Amino acid sequence: MLAIFVIVPLLIGAAISAILKGYEKLISKIALAMSLVSMLFAFYLFALSPGNQNIPWFTLSGYIVHISTTLAPLHILLLLIVAIITPLVMLYSIGYMRLPSEQGRFYFELSIFSAAMMLFSIASNLITMFIGWELLGLTSYLLIGFWNRKENAMKASLKAISTILIGDILVLMGIVILWTAYGTFNIAYIAGAAHKGIAVEYALIFIIFGAFTKSAQFPFHEWLADAMEGPTPVSAFLHSSTMVKAGVFLIALILPLIMSYNLGYILIIIGVITALVGALNALSETHIKRILAYSTIEDMGLMFVALGFNSLFAAIALFFVQTFYKAELFMSAGYMMKANNDEENINSIYGPGRFKELMIPTIIAAASLAGIIPLSGFFGKAAVDSAVSNVYVYAMLVAIDLLSAAYIFRWMFIPLKKNGPRTSYERVPREMLIPIYILAIMIVGASVIYFMLPSYLGVAPISANYIHDAILLASAIIGIAVAYFSFYKSTATKSLNIIYTRRITNNFYALIVTLFTHIAGAVEKIDSALYGFIKDGSIGIRYIGSRLSLIENGKIDYYLIAFITGLTVIIVVFMVF
Amino acid sequence: MTLQLNIIDLILPSLFGIAILSFVALYFEAKRLSAIVILLFSFLIFSSSLYAAYIGTNAMYLGAIHIYPFSMLFVAIISIGVLLVGMSAYDYSKDYCAFASMLGLSLIAGFVVATSSTLLSILLGLELMAILASMLILLEGRHRIEAAVKLFIMGSLFAALFTFGAAILLQFNNGVSLNGPISGTGYAIILAMLLIIASLGFETAIFPFNLWIPDVYSGSPGFITAMLAGINKKVAFVGLILVLFVSFGAMAKTYSPIIEALAIFTMFYGNLLALSQKNVKRMLAYSSISQAGYILVGIAAASISGLSAAIFYIFAHSFMIIGAFIVVLVLESKNIQKVDEYTGLFQRSGILGISLSIFMLSMAGIPPLIGFFGKFLLFYSAVNSKLLFLAIVGIVNSFLSIYYYGRVINAIFTQRKQRHIHIGVMALIAIIVPLIIVVAFGLFPQPIINLASIAAKSII
Amino acid sequence: MIPIILFLIALCAILMIINALMKSNFRLLPAISALAGLLVSIYAAIVYLYSGSVPVENFAYIPYLNIPLSFNLSGISIVLLIMSSIVLLAASIAGNPEREHTKLSGTMILLFQIASIGLFSANNLFVFFIFWDIGVIAMFVMINVLGSANRRSASINFLVYEIFASSMLLLAIILLYTYTPTHTLQIGSIASLASQIPPRIQLYIFILFFVAFMTNILIYPMHFWLPDAHAEASTQGSMLLSGILTKFGGYGMFLLFLMMPIAREYAYIIAALAIFSSIWGALILIRQTDIKRIVAYSTIVEMAIILMAISSYSNIGEAGAIFGMLSHGLTVSLMFLTAGTIKYIFSERNTTRLRGILLSTPASTYAFIIAALSMIGFPLTTGFITDILIFIGSFQAFGLYALIPLIAILIVGIFMYALISKSFLYVKESSDAGAYIGKRETLGYYIIAGAIILIGIVPLIIINLLGL
Questions:
Q1: How far apart (Å, rounded) are the C-alpha atoms in residues B213 and B192?
Q2: Any idea where the domains of chain C sit in the sequence?
Q3: Which of A541, A556, A563 sits opposite B209 (nearest CB)?
């Protein structure tokens, strides 16, 4: 049984969605069913755990390039996460996406996206991984720009794909160099390989930055915030479980090689900056989904910090627990928006009367993010905190923990405070609530799994550092308190504008684009000048011709003179010299 | 031996037949008879002389007519040229009978030059041709007097210089007879050579002796232009080749640089001036000048391969230029002269558009047309004789030429709905025959290359 | 053993004459002959894969010069033949949405097909040259007859540049012929004899060949003719021009590096030129607003990258170059087909005014996206295999510099995505189509897009043909 077949049901679902027209209601059900089949298959694989499998694809000067899959613990962990989240998102979408005309396209893109992520997660060589990686980029582009009548959505999708494309090219560069250096695409082999010159170092830097673009790290982070223009299920999918984690996952796989080249500092520096930027922006943002997006950016930063300190376990722990609470939060956000006629500004969203059925799971998720103890989020953050061995970085992390507790409860309190009019209340479909509750249960359950992770992954667990844990808990409580007093109790401040970098970053991007446009303009000018020069040259030759034709004035005496002159000249030239 | 005599027996009566019967027809104003006479006899001459060239006959007849592959090949080229021109003029000439008789005499003159065994018969034949040409131009209209006079004056200059050169050579062994290389050295012989080259340069269109060409070519009706460019010029080349390769055969080192220099100037002159022409006929006139330059490349190579290349190209060019001028002639009669007026020609008449395009592409040296193989052989022989610079100039010129040919082809294929152009049957045949030759021998050039090399070997 | 190439050329020639002489125009003839070409090349591929070679076809042509009419199908030729047949098939089926001048364009397509078959399978430089010029002339007429407003000057430009190239080629061939000890132009034997030519002459020959092919494959500073030619050519013209004609130069360059050992000494300079050219082309591309010009400049970028791969002198790189020609031929012709159809529907080529193409013609949108993806090197398209092969091969030869063209790909890619976003996917108001595309155009999309994806997913056959 080939492990790669796990994506087949999803592909079938995608194909059906593309072909079936006129049965819109059916499409979503079929897609959901197919994703459930995939999930079951994933569990089956988990139980069976077949080893590496290679399908030959093409040859490279004797070396056979395979489509190869593995079910090593790390890979299957990601596979399971994706397999579980996919049906939940599909179910949620049944409620969320109600426009019948767009069902086919949506489920097609979503299924492919999910299949790509699964392929990515079980890939054991760089080529297979790159296929998944690129497909993710493309489908996320299509999904973010799903509302193709909204100009903002199109701009956001373009920004996303441009950033991601930079990463794709960088990763491709890395793959090319790594193959040349090691003669293989096998990730496990490369990860454990020895030093091989400066070129490999470049390759690793390329791949690290490629991963940064995918995982929305500073300075490539802004696309993720913009990506909120897409439908909410997409946001939940993109940001919770999948695409953005691809970068982290890739780096985690080749971490040993990066560490042997001592490149961890890049991960730490960028990770910390990103986490800080994300947390601060989340605190100032008012767009309900964008706050969560910045929060995701921050989480990814923390994962990279953990990786930078060579702590695979801490990174994977956060990687694992973050999935559930972030998915839940996004789904809640979508639910709130739906309940408020697609309002996106938290200051205009009214609760809790409109969505009191949402309160318990949302509070669980928010508390988990903030780091309240028995919830899984706490363990993830604690693991990262404990992995950090540098005191300055640790101080930063504590500050970030505090900020994140503050912004997530700000995100909750502001809508909660306003018990708005019950009129214009839109009934939210039941289908959207089921996955939210399932996820809330998972958030709690993940705490148990957290303790099983070390033995499963075969890595040493982080020894519990109670001081760190206490500091984390304290900062979470302080953060919640700050949020409570400034946003729930007080009426004055509605936002806490410490630093808001969104505009700066966008200006920075615009600057780069302008720069390129100007360079290109100059090049074009030079080019057309050169072309003009050549054209002038050809006109010049014709001009010579037209001047010469003045000799031909039709007078016979001139011709005779020319004849005699010519004769004289050749006589002189050839007889005298 | 009997066979050779048979061929001569066929050619000479045919020549007489043309001469006499065409005057009979002229007397009775019998247009059809003229046409039949000229076409029939020139075809007879063509086929028999081609056969003679092919089997490699070599004999002296009447002590003056030298029958050997070179001469026979050229007689064939001239006679088919006459055939085509004679056909094309049928519907367009004002006085066809007179034209046909003059044309017949031209054929005789060409025969005299090709088979000549002394310099004097070259002089005789060429001068006869020049005078006939000026008379023909005169015949076809009043306003062409100027062109005729120019041609006449230049022709007399040619005669004077050629005679002077021949007179100088008289003192040397083998002087004016074309029996073998002249034995002798010194300035006098070089002077004679230069004089003869210059005088022949008048008809072969070598710069700077060719300034009359555009005026006369564009001032004459198309069929006469076709005759001038396709027959007279080729005959003059026969003279040039005979003089250089036979009389001055031992002095290749001397004449090669002269011809090389003349070739370079001629090619550039023709092409540069053709670039700025708006009148297609005038443009073709200039282009035929530059084509003469290409032929000179082969002569400058002064080797068997060079000579056979030159012969091949003369063969090729006579068909291309005759075909092109006949197309021009047809269009001229509809008052279409400028490049812009050629717009939409393909839609107005597919055969005219396609054939003119193919003739021009062939002249530009685009494979697989006959002109390309000619150029390939020419430039190859130049490189082979260590004249790399000449070959480069030739290729540069061949590149320059594509611009003006391209402009015309461009116009031809541009769409513009206009009335269809009707073509006379005779003219149509006269266009299609060269077209077939240009394409067929472009695809399979080997027979012509064989003939050319047989001819070249027979002279050196 | 039937001489398949000669047979195929004869078939095309007969069909061409029939097409030209027939009064009513029977538009399927070019498609039939392209299909025949495809079948023959697939047959040749099977023969090649089973027996390791396809019999060489030799016919006496010009014994005087010791030049035979010689065809040899190497794996590379077969790959290029397959590519050109697919492009020709799609072009003749779908490339003329206006349905104008179908007879003349059909004739020219057939003529062009003769040229491409002969050129890619030529075993003799002289034969190569003949087919080269036939292709140029066919293309010249096509641009001239079926293009848009400024086609006259564009076609003259094209002709002048291409004849410049062919003049250089002619001179090089003459030099090669003269100075090769045995006076041969057989491609196979030149490789072993070239070292006996005086070094100076070798250098001349190399430069001449290089300039000729460079003009054809659009390396800076010889790239000027292409954008104009494309902007003005018809859809079919652009497809064949970019899809096949530029491959003439690419194939020639490949042969040049195969034949002339001296090329090795200049590989670095050539690669530098190619890298520069790719970046240059990409930068000019992002200033364009005409959809056909955009695609035209993308050709410059891609062909420059292919040149870099050719000059790498590594197995992988050279196989990548050929694969790249296959990929680029398909990709760019699909793009031009889309662009032409869009131009036909909207009567508009300016991308700043084209909006909501998705709504009017979804098929064109998807086709364009597939082509763009292949151009960027998206996995599961031919472009990906190309990129892997080319950049691994070039990296082995030139180190990190070989990765610079990826920046050009990045620039092109971002621009293409921007184009897709703004013009294709973004639906601002209900844009109504002036005309809708027929089944033939859609069939054309299926053919090329299918080939791109099929070969992208199953590249093994092509890779085996390339002997990698």
A1: 24
A2: 4-465
A3: A563
Residue B302 — left, alpha, or beta (φ > 0 → left; ψ -120 to 50 → alpha)? Answer: left
The ranges assigned to domains in chain A are 263-498, 512-576
Which residue do the tokens 């995701």 mark? A296
Interface test with C, best of A131, A154, A176, A526 (most C CBs within 10 A): A176
Distances (CA, A) of C271 to A286, A460, C278, C282: 52, 50, 10, 17
Partner-chain residue, chosen from A545, A567, A575, that has the shortest CB–CB distance to B272: A545
Question: How far is residue B71's CA from residue B246's CA, in Å, rounded to a whole number?
Answer: 13
Give pLDDT, residue A424. Answer: 54
Distance from CA of C424 to the nearest CA of A (A): 10
Q: What is the mean pLDDT of residues A139-162?
A: 88
Residue C158 confidence class, pLDDT cut points 50, 70, 90: confident
Q: Which residues of chain B have pLDDT under 70?
A: 1-7, 141-144, 175
**Among A106, A79, A78, which Cα is nearest to A3's?**
A79
Asked if residue C278 lies in contact with residue C223, where contact means CB atoms within 8 angstroms, the answer is: no
**Coil, strand or helix at A241:** helix
C262 and C193 Cβ atoms separated by less than 8 Å: no
**ipTM of this model?**
0.92
Mutate to test the interface with A, among B207, B275, B278, B290 (most CBs of A within 10 A): B275
* pTM score of the predicted model: 0.91
Average pLDDT value for residue range C231-242: 86
Judged on CB neighbours under 10 Å (0-12, 13-18, 19+), B170 is exposed
* Residue A170 pLDDT: 93
pLDDT reading at A42 higher than 70: yes
Q: CA nearest B391: which of C133, C132, C208, C199?
A: C208
CA distances from A497 to A113, A290, B161, B371 (A): 36, 15, 104, 82
Do the Cβ atoms of B450 and C159 come within 8 Å?
Answer: no
pLDDT digits (tens, 9 = 90+) for A160-185: 999 999 999 999 999 999 998 888 88
According to DSSP, residue C63 is labeled G
Number of Cβ atoms within 10 Å of the Cβ of B14:
24
| A266-277 confidence digits (pLDDT tens) | 999 999 999 999
Report the SS3 class of residue B220.
coil
Contact A58 C459 (CB under 8 A): yes
Contact C25, C96 (CB under 8 A): no
Q: How far apart are CA B239 and CA B228, in angstroms?
A: 15
